[in-house]
Amino acid sequence: MLSSAVPPDTRVRTGPRRARHLTVLLGASLRAMPKTPLALGGLVGLLTTATPALLHVGLGLPDVAVLSRVAAVAVALGAGFVLDDPAARTTVAVPVSRMAQRAVRAVPVLVLGMAVWAVAAAVARTTLPQDARPLFPWGGLAAEAAALVAICLALAAVGLRFTEGERGSLVAAPGILLLVITMALLPEGAALFLPPGHPSWVAVHRVWTGLLTAAPAGGALLAGGADSARLTGTRTRR
User: Fold this and answer.
1) How far apart are CA 119 and CA 45, in angstroms?
2) Are 110 and 146 in contact (CB under 8 A)?
């Protein structure tokens, strides 16, 4: 009797083949990624925190937290350009989904962005008096920075939906700036940018952790129509 089941050896080979596709895609994607905006964002973040240190200016903990947040916004802005692909309309099909293509570019950028932010925050921390340095809230500020970068990448993915996969930064850059300005203007009872040591610090950073967790899923959901929109546009032009 003939069986319609997939042969076992085919099932076994599917995983390694997919892994090879993703590995090749990762290298190609990182080579094609716009690197200048990300480098500029990291440079601005580092210069922001390095200037007081180079001038030997002593700062208090709230001011150092502000410097670290400015660096996080700069890094997030740079990350908002990395999903841009001006050649998206002419790119040939590859054996992985568009979602996977964007993920293999976004995840390393998130890791790299956080590494740059950590260096900038460490430089800012040097402006504190020696006895105040142990009070620097690494965990909370890192959660804020990671959430901002993740949100900006999610906005970039949404932007790809409206630009046929080409210019997600058109949504990401103004979107993250508007979001940060709105957060900074929230009244005290709803503020998300708090000075270290604030009584609501722990509670607010649960919100930041939730934003960090929800941003990738939200971006993927809202950008879900990008591929279909791109295919529709391609058929129309043909």
Assistant:
1) 9
2) yes
How far is 157 from 8, CA to CA, in rounded Å? 37
Which amino acid appears at position 116 of this protein? Answer: V
Rounded CA Rg of the chain: 21
Has residue 109 got a pLDDT over 60?
yes
The alpha carbon of 192 is separated from its chain's Cα centroid by a whole number of angstroms, namely 19
* Cβ-contact 44, 73 below 8 angstroms: no
Neighbours of 19 (CB within 10 A): 10
Round to whole Å and give the CA distance between 21 and 23.
5
Burial class (CB in 10 A: 0-12, 13-18, 19+), 3: exposed
pLDDT at site 183: 96
Cα 13 to Cα 129: distance, rounded to the nearest angstrom: 58
Q: CB neighbours of 90 closer than 8 A, spacing ≥ 6?
A: none
**All residues at 6 or more sequence positions from 192 whose CB lies less than 8 Å from its CB, including other chains:** 183, 186, 204, 207, 208
Give 136 or 162, the one with higher predicted confidence. Answer: 136
